[in-house]
Design a protein that fits this description.
single chain, 335 residues, 0% strand, membrane, transmembrane helix, transmembrane
Length: 335
């Protein structure tokens, strides 16, 4: 089993060394260096705890993909996840929110981390609404499936599978939840929140449509790429949505963009290793309710993201809640 984590261990060692070097050049003291290394380690653990359900959902999608597309996602996909979401995404938010150039955003992150963190915090409302709506659609789509015949919480999931015949039921649920939380806000925040939630909903639907068109066009060409381009695109947007909460929450531990990138990048490599292990060892087939726990955790995370527009919820609680749901599903699978 340890062989699956060899790259994660290597990236961890490199990340710790890079964190120590960064700590030394920024603080010049041994205590400051150890403090930076500790923050990088905590961020890595935070990312793993928040993204374990992401690994299960990735594995659920990857098991239906052809080997070449699995390999592409686990190589190019992880590069996009680590460098795109952990470095480029926070910079892009500041570029748009502060109306400055990309290089100016990098300089701001290095020279004025407090101002950078403040801009990121101010952008949290639309990000939470967008990510919450997208992830809720992901979770509900798993349960509102009339072909689903394995149920963990039987009394609830059987009803959800039954109501899946109603067209657009998931969309209606997401809109109702978004409307409910928007009523707890005041002033211009209401429009910002609801517009971002609508965009999250539309993004999910567009990814589904575009993915279906891409895969069907490939099949018509005779490549039979079941779960190819479309699934790759879906997984990338899904990973981005999972990353929103971790990237924003990381600024509560450190205001240094580069420290955050190191910590979250280490965590992302462990998520990749867990995904590979789940696919190759057939863990999802062996533990039949593990997927259910992951998708319940996704719905819980989406509600938390919506709720964070009103009240702050520590990321530790979010991570522990998701881990508890997955742990319960694992225990039920063993029974």
């Amino acid at each position: 089993m340890l062989s699956y984590f060899k790259w994660a261990f290597l990236v961890t060692a490199l990340g710790i060394l890079l964190g120590a070097w960064l700590g030394w050049i920024t603080t010049g003291t041994a205590a400051g260096t150890l403090g930076i290394v500790f923050i990088c380690s905590v961020l890595a653990v935070l990312e793993i705890s928040l993204s374990f359900d992401n690994a299960i959902v990735n594995a659920n999608k990857l098991k239906h993909m052809r080997p070449e597309w699995q390999h592409r996602f686990l190589t190019w996909g992880i590069l996009i996840a680590v460098f795109g979401m952990r470095i480029v995404f926070p910079l892009l938010i500041v570029v748009i929110a502060a109306n400055i150039g990309p290089w100016q955003a990098v300089v701001l992150a290095a020279a004025q981390p407090e101002a950078y963190a403040r801009i990121m915090h101010d952008a949290h409302l639309p990000i939470a609404a967008f990510g919450g709506a997208f992830l809720m659609m992901v979770g509900l789509s798993f349960f509102f499936d009339r072909e689903k015949d394995v149920h963990w919480v039987r009394w609830l999931e059987q009803r959800m599978a039954k109501y899946a015949t109603i067209r657009g039921v998931e969309v209606a649920v997401v809109l109702l939840v978004a409307m409910g939380f928007s009523r707890l806000l005041e002033g211009p925040e209401v429009q910002v929140f609801f517009s971002a939630a609508i965009w999250g909903l539309l993004t999910f639907l567009l990814v589904e449509v575009v993915g279906g068109l891409l895969d069907s066009s490939q099949q018509s060409l005779g490549t039979a790429a079941k779960g190819g381009v479309g699934a790759f695109l879906y997984l990338e947007v899904l990973d981005a949505s999972f990353s929103f909460d971790g990237v924003i929450g990381a600024f509560a531990l450190s205001q240094n963009l580069f420290v955050i990138a190191i910590g979250l990048g280490i965590g992302a490599m462990y998520v990749r290793s867990m995904t590979i292990m789940l696919v190759e060892k057939g863990t999802l087939a062996e533990y039949r309710y593990l997927e259910h726990g992951a998708f319940y955790a996704i719905i819980a995370l989406s509600v938390v993201m919506f709720a964070q527009s009103v009240v702050h919820i520590p990321e530790v609680i979010t991570g522990l809640g998701g881990a508890a749901l997955i742990g319960l599903s694992f225990w039920s699978s063993l029974r």
